[in-house]
Amino acid sequence: MSTISAPIETPLRGFLREFAQDRVAIVAFFVLALIVLLALLAPWITPQDPYDLSNLVLMDARRPPGYVGSKGFTHWLGTDSQGRDLYSGILYGLRISLQVGLMAGAIAFALGASLGTLAGFAGGRIETLIMRIIDLQLSFPAILLALVLAALLGQGKWPLIAALVTAQYAYFARTAHGAASSERSKDYVEAALSTPLSSVRVAFRHVLPNCLPPLIVVATVQVANSIALEATLSFLGLGMPVSEPSLGMLIANGFQYMLSGRYWISIYPGIALIVLIVAINLVGDQIRDQLNPRLKR
Amino acid sequence: MLAFIIQRLMQAAVVMLVISALVFVGVYAVGNPIDVMIAPDVTQEIRDQTIRAYGFDLPLWQQYGNFLQRLVTGDFGRSFVYNMPVLDLILSRLPATLEITLTAVIGAALLGVPLGMFAGYAPDSMAARAIMGVSVLGFSVPSFWIGLILIFVFAVNMGLLPAGGRGATVMWFGIEWSFLTGNGLKHMLLPAVNLALFKLALMIRLARAGTREVMLTDTVRFARAAGESEWTILRHHVLRLIAIPLVTVFGLELGSTLAFAVVTETIFSWPGVGKLIIDSISTLDRPVMVAYLMLVALLFITINLTVDIAYAALDPRLRARKST
User: Which of A147, A266, A281 has its CB closest to that of B148?
Assistant: First the structure.
């Protein structure tokens, strides 16, 4: 493959080159990048701040796509039951979905990876205790756990993130545990432990980085999952507060109007949600295939 | 073996105790339940009376003790909203949930296993790719969204099927069932399909992975050498070899379908247990929430216990190691 004149290929560069060769993954990646960009730029590229209730005109409520509102701009995707411009609502909703999904994913990653590495590295009683709890938790469906917690903790961004983290950290912990306990028996760990380094340092600076590839795969799946879970909870009325509608809540708000044929209120936020989740999953699939040594050709 | 079962039973009991404490603290200690039950403008006297009647004046650990005592005798209290014993309320909603979950899981298995086996038998064919595409969608698209689309297409646009409710029911053994009437079946179809799609995707994946592995083994090679037709090989050898993991997952999925039923029942206003729990969360009907959570915990612990014991019975190594 490599020619003599080619620059030395770092693992990262090799990874990116291989990623770029898969057409589906690269399209998914650019779609994902576009979504993130739209969400980040939302305040500057939307005609209306959907959270500012004084901005909403009830007369403009439930208008079909293409309707020119009383404020003078065109609602390309129509308006919802409160006269909210759906295009603006969707971009702001994407912000919330991404924010909640990434934060929940990151906290669950940190918590689960630490617990799992600790269990796999320490062994003995600590391992048994931690993994028993994790296994027990994994036997309950995540959605049920999140549902109950969201109901108990009340509405708001942080209770919601706490519910998502509780529902998801166990997946990271199990993966980290599996990887860490197989790393534990390797020679480099023995070598590191024979030096005066503290065992905590060995666990987190030496073992944990070697457990990262499977954890990264779990992370992509779990970010997509927590976005879907957040939308589901908000759809059921247990997620974000009404004043900050996420995609799930926009869909829920439109549900009752769908039966009378006003499809756009639910359908467009839904399409945005699906495109986001599928794009993350496709990118994640490709990363998984590349990091899995068994599938290497 | 007996020692192993006893040990596992004791573990399960400890877990139930921990869960009951968590549920109790979560549901009763967060917020003030008394505010939900009585109007804010009643006299102080009535207020005190109610507090004493429900035992809210006792210290928390004593309330928990009473709560446990009532649990053991099967008394979950009365629903604040329906004013009837919670257990009766949940049992009256259970048939509706069982009806659609069983239909969904069995339907998914009957359809998913053959499709998955085909996709594993001819992985490069166009049909197999289409099947796998459907299964990816079933995995990544949230089920509430699929439910919405089903309603939009089949109920609103085409007007073929009802969008919600249970339809006509028939009494059978003193319980109302929908699947015995044509109208009820029509109402069942969309929620059951909605619930089945995720299971279908799972069954397809499992059957495909199993079939791909088994097709490469000597069993299949010898069967081919013996002149058996491909159809016979698939039906007699492959299906039998992949059946054990499929049956395990099937059993486990029956339990978790209950959790997904919450979403589906809400969308299709199907009057089952899932709809009941969502309604009771929004009306703060605490006894119903507690009873539901405890019953679900009991269900999952029982399933896990059964799986553990079944595995131990099948694998003597596990049995010897765990009981020491």
Answer: A266
Collapsing DSSP states into helix, strand and coil, what is residue A85? strand
| Token pair 């020491």: residue | B324
A273 in B contact zone (CB under 8 Å): yes
Do B262 and A147 make contact, defined as CB atoms within 8 angstroms?
A: yes
- Is A75:A98 a contact under the CB 8 Å cutoff? no
pLDDT of amino acid A2: 45
> Looking at beta carbons, which residues of chain A come within 8 Å of B300?
139-140
Q: Which residue has the tokens 């403009």?
A: A60
Q: Which residues in A lie closer than 8 A to residue B282 (C-beta atoms)?
A: 237
3-class SS letters over B156-201: HHCCCCCCCCCCCCEEECCEEECCCCHHHHHHHHHHHHHHHHHHHH
CA distance B129 to B123: 7
Q: Is A228 within 8 Å of chain B by CB? A: yes
What is d(CA B318, CA B324) in angstroms, rounded to the nearest whole number?
A: 10
Take residue A105 and report the two structure tokens written for it.
């994913």
3-state SS class at B176: strand
pLDDT at B29: 60
Query: Which candidate, A54, A73, A270, A146, places its Cα nearest to that of B281?
Result: A146
Contact A144/B262, CB-based, under 8 Å?
yes
* Residue B301 DSSP SS3: helix
* Three-class SS state of B228: coil
CB contact under 8 A, B140 and A266: no
**Claim: this prediction has a pTM higher than 0.95:** no
Beta strands in chain A (DSSP E): 67-68, 74-75
Averaged pLDDT, A31-54: 81
